[in-house]
């Protein structure tokens, strides 16, 4: 291609300030604007999904059918999962990638800025479709977010909206991921070799690969549901030679890499924060990279551990059990490296560090209960109980969500130029970390004692732990309003910060002014 | 705004991506209403499709203008290449889901339901024997004939393979600046693609009416129509893309060493070609 570039062609000069008004946000191709949009959208959905969780915990506060219709309860468990996964966590992580990847690799912007804009604005479109189902005859999807047939085929008017919402969100994820992968592979500053990239960039490269690989598989699975419902196909109908279990195979071939999509960027965040506040370089950088890649590879061959109770052949149960247990090896490498990073470091405990340390401890709790669930004979007992709910909420809430909060506190001064209110941040942390354990830890006991998930009522012996869990849930939920207040306060003003912000911070983004200007690295930095 | 300093090129912002968003939402919502039995969903769906189409055309139009104006440097070229490669990879995985369903049905679920696994079959449809192709144990009264590999699918295989060859010929001609050969090669490829689609349409009518093979005749019919159908849609998209490229060649948009638009369309076409080979072997022959 010709390298001739004339900026006069469109009659624009070099504006370095962002344009004003609503069109700035609608038409923006700026990675920082889109990062803000993605994260704001994630935060909004976090509260919508959180409100659904509050309804679930309110219903479960006491035994008996108290508050909501059981069918509405099913809608809440389903929508809570869909909103939190596709609306809160994935957009928040994509937003962080948008903001941070270009400034961490010394690129001027994302590689495909217009695709970036499109990928973001598809999210509101998808969620308009999905959330509109709440007001339809028959209500929102109530089949569980896993959409297993034949149950999902019995939904009311919401069914096709669910399918197409998943399609739109899938297109958004694929486009966003292609953009991130291309940015990382093609836009690095001179000297920024792959093995010099910050781990957040590495984990996102691997996450992007996973998303491009598995989101189309989900699209295929839900397309088969759609044609089974409306066009007479028999993919999941045994009478026609299909198999409902086949849906579970295809779904979890997507679904297991999906859960690593949700956690790998969180690994990258924690790997950035711990060295800063331990004032030591990350221990075992290259082993972190290889561990991440190993986890990604293993994620493709463990899917049927979600299906131990459907009647898999023995050989299948053994294979998926051992493959799943293997995941603990690279994950153990990571946890070891994080602890070794902190070992004999000059540690200080600012809010991002507190969230990161809590991540290491509590993610490990979720990881260990995952190893328990990996054991096929044991899983026959635990399957579809609150033990599973406790497991994945430790991984997703005290894991990913805590890492996202750590990231927000860590980079907020870079984004706004102001230090957040450290005192409020610490209060937010301590209230969150205590209440989240009150919320989820008793659910382990409930599950081991046999309380099934996704059921609005329960036997009397589960009453105490459910009440404790609900109280923890309400406190955790309302504590997050403080998080929003801290962010608003920090955006509006506060103590000015230096370029480096944190004494021990390393990396290209800390060489930029705080707040980072609208366009950065228009000429590439040289990385030595 | 356009920024071009040093080695970087950052394209100016665009209104087309956002313009298309309501289109996609209306398309999907209208289709959903229509599937739920609301006739008013249909016009909404059409409106959404039109908006989406306008977005696609206008967005590509901008990109073509910028490319012709020489605004894209080598790094942008590489971004486009990698983006297209990742996109094709995602398409491969989409087809993978349907091929996976095909293998699952043939290797696992049909033998289980058809007597290989007594624990399954005796409780569902006892002493039913199934062999591929089948409408399934609950539809034994459904009478259909499978679509054989001869003659239409074999002819279509040859057509698609030939189109791959004519396209490669056009690409070599492009690199050697033989404009006329490029145009002939591309035109032939588009024509072969259109022929493929026409024959496939005829094949569908034949299968539907003469062979009684429909989407609701069990797992074989489901897989047959979904696999070949999605492939057929990709052939049409690929041929349309190549047609646009043909017009761009005639307009002189490409040079011997700068023609990524051509190459992207060619990659896509070869991908569609390879998927067909998989289909031909696993759906028709075996």
Task: Quickly list its features.
heterodimer, A: 528 residues, mainly alpha, 14 helices, disordered N terminus, B: mainly alpha, Helix Hairpins, two-stranded antiparallel sheet, 2 strands
Indicate the percent of residues in helices of chain A.
Answer: 55-70%
Mean pLDDT of chain A: 94
- Please report which band the strand proportion of chain B falls in: under 5%, 5-15%, 15-25%, 25-35%, 35-45% or over 45%: under 5%
What is the arithmetic mean of pLDDT of chain B?
A: 92
- Low-confidence segments of chain A: 1-15
Query: If helices are DSSP runs of H or I spanning 4 or more residues, what is the number of helices of chain A?
Result: 14
Number of strands of chain A: 0
What CATH architecture label of the largest domain in chain B applies?
A: Up-down Bundle
What Rg of chain B do the Cα atoms give?
23 Å
| Largest sheet features of chain B | 2 strands, antiparallel
Structural class by helix and strand composition of chain A: mainly alpha
What is the N-to-C succession of helices and strands of chain B? EEHHHHHHHH
And the CATH topology of the largest domain in chain B? Four Helix Bundle (Hemerythrin (Met), subunit A)
Describe the model:
Chain A is mainly alpha-helical. Helix content of chain A is 66%, strand content 0%. Chain A contains 14 helices and no strands. Chain A has helices at 22-27, 31-59, 70-105, 113-132, 158-186, 199-230, 244-278, 285-299, 314-342, 351-374, 376-382, 386-416, 422-448, 463-492. With 286 residues, chain B is mainly alpha-helical. Helices cover 73% and strands 2% of the residues of chain B. In chain B, α5 runs antiparallel to α6 (179-209) and α6 (179-209) packs antiparallel against α7. Residues 1-5 of chain B have low confidence and may be disordered. Classes of the chains: A mainly alpha (528), B mainly alpha (286). Chains A and B meet through α4, α5, α6 and α7 of A and β1, β2, α1, α3 and α7 of B.
């Amino acid at each position: 291609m010709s390298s001739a570039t004339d900026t006069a062609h469109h009659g624009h000069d070099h504006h370095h300030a962002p344009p004003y008004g609503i069109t700035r946000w609608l038409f923006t191709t700026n990675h920082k604007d889109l990062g803000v949009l993605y994260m704001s959208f994630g935060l909004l959905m976090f509260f919508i999904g959180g409100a659904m969780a509050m309804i679930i915990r309110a219903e479960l506060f006491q035994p008996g059918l108290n508050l909501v219709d059981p069918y509405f309860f099913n809608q809440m468990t389903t929508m809570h999962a869909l909103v939190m996964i596709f609306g809160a966590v994935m957009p928040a992580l994509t937003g962080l990638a948008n903001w941070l990847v270009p400034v961490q690799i010394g690129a001027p912007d994302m590689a495909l800025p217009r695709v970036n804009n499109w990928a973001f604005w598809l999210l509101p479109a998808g969620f308009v479709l999905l959330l509109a189902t709440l007001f339809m005859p028959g209500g929102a999807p109530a089949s569980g977010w896993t959409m297993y047939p034949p149950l999902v085929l019995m939904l009311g008017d919401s069914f096709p909206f669910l399918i197409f919402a998943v399609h739109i969100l899938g297109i958004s994820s694929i486009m966003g991921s292609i953009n991130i992968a291309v940015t990382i592979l093609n836009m690095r500053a001179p000297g920024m070799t792959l093995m010099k990239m910050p781990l957040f960039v590495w984990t996102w490269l691997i996450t992007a690969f996973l998303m491009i690989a598995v989101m189309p598989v989900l699209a295929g699975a839900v397309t088969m549901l759609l044609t089974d419902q409306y066009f007479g196909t028999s993919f999941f109908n045994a009478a026609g030679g299909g198999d409902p279990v086949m849906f579970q195979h295809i779904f979890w071939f997507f679904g297991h890499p999906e859960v690593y999509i949700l956690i790998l960027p969180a690994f990258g965040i924690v790997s950035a924060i711990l060295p800063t506040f331990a004032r030591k370089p990350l221990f075992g950088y290259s082993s972190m990279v290889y561990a991440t890649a190993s986890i990604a590879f293993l994620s493709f061959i463990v899917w049927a551990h979600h299906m131990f109770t459907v009647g898999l052949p023995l050989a299948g149960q053994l294979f998926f059990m051992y493959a799943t247990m293997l995941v603990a090896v690279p994950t153990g490498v990571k946890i070891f490296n994080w602890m070794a990073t902190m070992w004999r470091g000059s540690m200080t405990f600012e809010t991002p560090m507190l969230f990161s340390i809590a991540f290491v401890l509590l993610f490990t709790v979720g990881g260990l209960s995952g190893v328990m669930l990996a054991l096929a004979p044991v899983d026959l007992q635990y399957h579809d109980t609150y033990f599973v709910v406790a497991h994945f909420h430790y991984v997703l809430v005290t894991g990913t969500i805590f890492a996202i909060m750590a990231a927000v506190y860590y980079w907020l001064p870079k984004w706004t130029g102001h230090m957040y209110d450290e005192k409020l941040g610490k209060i937010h942390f301590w209230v969150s970390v205590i209440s989240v354990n009150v919320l989820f830890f008793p659910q382990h006991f409930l599950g081991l004692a046999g309380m099934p998930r996704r059921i609005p009522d329960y036997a009397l012996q589960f009453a105490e732990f459910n009440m404790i869990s609900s109280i923890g849930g309400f406190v955790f939920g309302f504590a997050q309003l403080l998080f929003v207040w801290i962010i608003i306060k920090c955006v509006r003003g506060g103590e000015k910060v230096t370029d480096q912000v944190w004494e021990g911070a390393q990396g290209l983004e800390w060489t930029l002014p705080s707040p980072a200007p609208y366009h950065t690295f228009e000429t590439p930095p040289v990385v030595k | 705004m356009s920024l071009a300093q040093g080695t970087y090129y950052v394209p100016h912002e665009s209104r087309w991506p956002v313009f298309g968003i309501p289109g996609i939402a209306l398309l999907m919502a209208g289709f959903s209403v229509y599937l739920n039995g609301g006739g008013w969903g249909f016009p909404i769906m059409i409106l959404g499709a039109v908006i989406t189409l306008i977005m696609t055309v206008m967005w590509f139009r901008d990109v073509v203008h910028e490319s012709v104006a020489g605004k894209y440097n080598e790094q942008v070229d590489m971004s486009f290449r990698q983006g297209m490669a990742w996109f094709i990879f995602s398409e491969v995985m989409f087809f993978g889901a349907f091929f996976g369903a095909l293998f699952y049905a043939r290797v696992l679920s049909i033998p289980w339901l058809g007597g290989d696994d007594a624990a399954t079959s005796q409780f569902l449809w006892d002493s039913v024997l199934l062999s591929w192709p089948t409408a399934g144990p609950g539809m034994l009264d459904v009478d259909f004939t499978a679509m054989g590999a001869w003659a239409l699918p074999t002819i279509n295989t040859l057509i698609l393979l030939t189109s791959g060859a004519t396209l490669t010929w056009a690409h070599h001609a492009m690199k050697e600046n033989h404009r006329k050969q490029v145009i002939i090669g591309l035109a032939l490829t588009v024509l072969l693609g259109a022929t493929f689609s026409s024959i496939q349409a005829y094949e569908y009518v034949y299968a539907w009416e003469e062979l009684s093979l429909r989407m609701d005749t069990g797992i074989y019919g489901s897989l047959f129509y979904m696999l070949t159908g999605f492939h057929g849609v990709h052939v049409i998209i690929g041929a349309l893309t190549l047609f646009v490229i043909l017009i761009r060649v005639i307009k002189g948009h490409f040079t011997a060493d700068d023609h990524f638009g051509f190459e992207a369309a060619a990659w896509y076409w070869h991908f569609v070609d390879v998927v067909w080979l998989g289909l031909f072997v696993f759906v028709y022959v075996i």
